[in-house]
Amino acid sequence: MDNQELESETLVTHTLPAPPETFVNGQQAALQCDSEVPGYDAIPTNSPVTISWLPIMMSHPDPMGAQQFNHQYRS
Hints:
Layout: E1 5-12, E2 16-17, E3 22-24, E4 27-28, E5 51-53, E6 59-60, E7 67-74
Antiparallel strand pairs: 1-7, 2-6, 3-4, 3-5
């Protein structure tokens, strides 16, 4: 296959989980926790710190869990 083009379509069936909804000490975690970036919304907390999240019931980015990709390879 040297110097020849190979073209194919592939259905990717690996499901990636959607981002979790996270909590710090029972309060919704910050969306922006970098204090040097606009939109900083982290709340102060004391130790001990408990990080938790709700069950993830959807996939990301496609709720059906599959995407189709077109591939072109050159060897």
